[in-house]
Design goal:
With 176 residues, the protein is α/β, with parallel strands linked by helices. It is built from 6 helices and 5 strands, in the order E-H-E-H-E-H-E-H-E-H-H. 55% of the residues lie in helices and 14% in strands. It has a 5-stranded parallel beta sheet with strand order 2-1-3-4-5, with helices on both faces.
């Protein structure tokens, strides 16, 4: 097995339905990753050991998803020189604001690149972008990915111009 370049860590298995989107993006770009359940509060010693060893194991970027009092990304960032991307997970309270603020309000010197609430897909894309800085093949794939996105929007606009907004909404509601 190849050394994983990216480590995805989750505060709980309940974060997995959201964090799977990070894994899917990394698979799309053919990047080796590992995924672990690790809690800043429930398994602090394991979280500490993980953070201290990740760089030596060859991991390049850590993506941490957690909700509620979401300290996972922050405590990991405090213990490693690797870049840490945080995904605040929408929990049962406060529309996810608790998770977002726990993650985004890091003290100066210990950054966590915090995504939107449940922004797990973007966490994967940002990680790919960081790796692409030193990998032209990945840069090419990212360019193609962004071109495909642009094409999707352009197709939607062509359809809107052709059928008008009323029919567009009907079609949209039928599909979703
Ligand atoms: C956090 O508490 C986890 O990241 C999760 O989002 C939240 C709830 O965990 P469970 O009670 O579902 O295990 O630590």
């Amino acid at each position: 097995m190849n050394t994983p370049l990216i480590s995805i860590i989750l505060g709980s298995d309940s974060d997995l339905p959201i964090m799977q989107e990070t894994a899917q993006i990394l698979e799309e770009f053919n990047i080796d990753y590992e995924i672990k359940i690790l809690s800043a509060h429930r398994t602090p010693k394991e979280a500490f050991d993980f953070a201290q060893n990740a760089a030596n194991r060859g991991v390049k970027i850590i993506i941490a998803g957690a909700g509620g009092a979401a300290h996972l990304a922050g405590i990991i960032a405090a213990l490693t020189t690797l870049p840490v991307i945080g995904v605040p997970i929408l929990g049962k309270s406060f529309d996810g604001l608790d998770s977002l603020l726990s993650m985004v309000q890091m003290p100066s010197g210990i950054p966590v690149a915090t995504m939107a609430v449940n922004g797990s897909k973007n966490a994967g894309i940002l990680a790919v972008k960081i790796l692409a800085c030193s990998n032209p093949e990945l840069t090419k794939k990212l360019t193609e990915y962004q071109q495909k996105l642009a094409q999707t929007v352009s197709n939607k606009n062509s359809k809107l111009q052709k059928i008008g907004y009323q029919q567009y909404i009907k079609d949209f509601l039928n599909k979703n």
